[in-house]
């Protein structure tokens, strides 16, 4: 007998909790945008009742296996495959590529997921996508990669870099072609991917943040603290901000706080010394979440000179903390920073332009500064983590967006 309240023409969607395998070449304790996104997405899905399994390299080669780990106060099943350190990089670990399909078969046999979400097309996501496709398991793929993110760590002669990058993108196209949907954090990043590997229909889905975790300070105060949060790697171009700070020091009592670790820290410390601003720059290294949020609240402006951001979670966190942003006019940063509204964009690599835009923020009238703060808080509303979770749940279930 059919329930009269449920017409046959309108079947009820299956809303049962899903079993999801998250394939991630980088995950906690790594500190980078892709890892942070995978952590928050996995924790958010677990909080909604889904059974989430993360597949990622082990922190040390000796300690691999399946563990229950806590991220964002949620317990997640993490399958840590034997990981090998890539020594040209300060933290990167990888799974042997020729073993990726073997591990994928084993985990898919054990977990029997409803869907696989690949966070990388390089090793684990690549192997998992191919085996999942063979078994009829739908795959959602998210791209976090740009050439600038990896080019410095290939150890190959520069003449070969373009060849290697082309081969990598060709393989990415084949991997993405096996997926139900391909996503990336912003529309600009989607256009970049569509243009780079000649595919259509890439979906822009914000990484998302919980703005309730951040504490904006909207009280009037002197403005002197510039903040950067992120990995200290070459594509971040933190040296451009150091040069801008040096240009401001003669006229402004400015301090530059740098939160994050990376292979370029020693070079950046030497640059600060060469510029004569050692006493104006504080390197905090990696910090706890509590200290990170305090750094955002304490700062007066967030500066990011990176040329390789597909979104920038750190910039969104700064916006949620009520900070005006000064950012390089490159890739996806203009998606977050609207010039003259919640801060300013500057010409990438141009320290004079960056210094000028920082000066505008730091010397703004109280009314103008508050207007930029409120513009950041308004703009970040579009990146609420719950909207991100809703969208991925629809993709996992094969529902229209």
TrEMBL record:
Boundaries of every Glycosyltransferase subfamily 4-like N-terminal domain copy: 31-210
Domain Glycosyl transferase family, residue spans: 224-374
Gene Ontology process terms (BP): carbohydrate derivative biosynthetic process
Keywords of the record: Glycosyltransferase, Transferase
Molecular-function GO terms, alphabetical: glycosyltransferase activity
A Pfam family reported for this protein in Swiss-Prot or TrEMBL: Glyco_transf_4
Superkingdom of source: Bacteria
Nucleotide-binding among keywords: no
PANTHER family with a match to the protein in the record: SULFOQUINOVOSYL TRANSFERASE SQD2
Protein name: D-inositol 3-phosphate glycosyltransferase
Species this protein is from: Microbacterium saccharophilum
